[in-house]
Design brief:
Length: about 525
């Protein structure tokens, strides 16, 4: 093979599958392989995955990646991880799963959420953990297991997240990192330790939780058994890594206080690096720990960003889909051209992007999507633009909450939505903020995990190396001429939600009664 290459292997355990990626030591993306796995929804609000599917994807993906890249196992310097957060996987003392994992999207634990709020208080819990007390987080899910599957709970030795289960399979160790631990509703966000107050109030033993360590710490080396299954070399260092949000933060180059980014994917979030948590008086935003455990990442996440545009494409963009299938290219680009033909403000049409209810900033599960202001002259271009703008207005609320604490002159844009220049210009104008586009926009999460691995083995001095590896390559500047129109539309957007909120509640009761989804 001549001179040996050296690689960092990053696994990104997402919701739809695991992406295994090889990076050169200079941060160059060399090769990636995606292995999908199924999601199970046995009943309403239940969303689960089989952890052995995760392990199978990691093993298969590693072998395929090494073969595809023609890389030898000894050329892999370390393995590191990014993983979906806020899950609940009970395992026994040997690390064997006792049931399928209850993943982040699962909201079955509504009774347990109420119990948590009754015992701790929503505002007090928010101050301790940096998050609202919610069925979305691990604690409520573990309480649900205790109350509904007592035999599983009795046999549970540890509750793990996705990456932590894979680390156990690779090394035999039970560990997690600060970023993933901050998505449990059980970590004291300022003390950076499991909260004794939360554990006592919820009657959860600390012994059920893994040891919390730095993201860049080594969990151990690849065991002989894991080496056989993955094709890696026995003893290869396994670096813990972090939750996917915190890995994306590093991959976007947000490694210094004050720098901020927006992930524009199916969901979307705005986050930044800060020296302390940001506690919003209305609890509209929340806080993670950064991969650099001395920093925090205050954050606001909306549910249906790219999802809203995908819904529009699938339901109202059939012509563009057919043209793209026939002639090649992207249905989205065709819809973007339609949107460009509509004026800023979409000729008076508003879209409320609440197809999946809403987290930040509304925290309203009953909210639903709506077009408002349509007239006889409304075009599909107006509707397409209204969807892109509606996501922008919702994110503007999040941005303004965060910018109230930390000035936000620029935003780094990553995720699949950052490929569309039409949307970038619309967002820059709505926010009147300069947007920067880095070299790698869709690989930021795995790149953050890879940098974490490099820091862990001493290859890089600190996380700031990402600024060289994933530099800004393009800038979108706001057009001040559009500010007035967007400010007026933004005010109407908020008025529209306030007016519809009571109606959403009534419609929810009707849906529940009629068994509609």
């Amino acid at each position: 093979m001549g001179n040996k290459e050296q690689y960092i292997l990053a696994h990104d355990l997402g919701t739809s599958g695991n992406k295994a990626t090889l990076y050169g030591v200079d941060g160059t993306l060399r090769c990636s392989v995606v292995c999908d796995y199924p999601t199970y929804t046995p009943q309403d609000r239940f969303v689960e995955q089989d952890p052995m599917d995760w392990w199978g994807a990691v093993c298969r993906g590693t072998r395929e990646l090494l073969e595809k890249a023609k890389a030898a196992p000894e050329e892999v310097l370390c393995v590191s991880f990014s993983g979906q957060m806020m899950g609940c996987l009970p395992v026994d003392a040997q690390g064997n799963p006792l049931r399928r994992s209850i993943i982040w999207a699962d909201t079955r634990a509504v009774t347990q959420e109420k119990e948590m709020i009754d015992r701790v208080g929503q505002a007090h819990g928010y101050r301790i953990t940096g998050h609202r007390l919610s069925a979305s987080y691990s604690a409520a899910k573990l309480m649900w297991v205790r109350e509904n599957e007592p035999e599983v709970y009795r046999r549970t030795a540890k509750m793990l997240h996705a990456k932590d289960f894979i680390i156990r399979k690779m090394t035999g160790c039970f560990v997690t990192d600060y970023s993933d631990a901050s998505g449990t509703n059980l970590l004291d966000i300022e003390k950076r330790a499991w909260s004794q107050e939360m554990l006592r109030a919820l009657e959860i033993s600390e012994s059920l939780l893994p040891e919390v360590r730095r993201s860049c710490d080594a969990a151990g080396g690849v065991t002989a058994e894991a080496a056989r299954e993955t094709g890696l070399l026995e003893g290869t260092p396994v670096i813990i890594g972090g939750g996917d949000g915190s890995c994306a933060c590093v991959g976007a180059g947000v490694v210094r206080p004050g720098r901020a980014y927006n992930v524009l994917g199916s969901s979307s979030w705005i986050s930044l690096a800060a020296e302390k948590p940001l506690f919003d008086e209305k609890m509209r935003t929340f806080n993670w720990l950064h991969l650099d455990e001395t920093l925090y990442t205050p954050c606001g996440t909306m549910q249906a960003a790219g999802y809203s545009y995908a819904w529009f494409r699938d339901q109202l963009g059939q012509m563009e889909k057919q043209e793209a299938a026939r002639d090649g290219g992207s249905a989205y680009e065709r819809l973007n051209r339609l949107a460009e033909g509509s004026a800023p403000g979409a000729n008076g049409v508003l879209f409320l992007p609440y197809l999946l209810g809403e987290r930040s900033p509304r925290w309203d599960l009953d909210a639903r999507g709506a077009f408002l202001g349509m007239g006889a002259g409304t075009t599909r271009g107006d509707l397409a633009r209204a969807v892109l703008e509606g996501v922008g207005y919702n994110l503007r609320i999040i941005r303004e909450i965060l910018a109230g604490a930390v000035p936000m002159e620029k935003l780094v844009m990553i995720g699949g939505g950052a490929k569309g220049r039409t949307w970038m210009h619309i967002l820059a104008d709505i926010w009147q903020t300069e947007l920067t586009l880095p070299r790698y926009r869709e690989e930021a999460t795995s790149m953050g995990a890879a940098v974490c691995g490099g820091v862990g083995i001493g290859l890089y001095p600190d996380y700031s190396v990402i600024e060289r590896m994933n530099p800004d390559e393009d800038v979108i500047r706001p057009n001040p001429e559009n500010a007035k129109a967007y400010d007026a539309a933004f005010e109407l957007f908020n008025d529209a939600y306030d007016a519809l909120a009571p109606l959403y509640k009534k419609m929810s009761v009707r849906r529940e009664g009629g068994r509609a989804s």
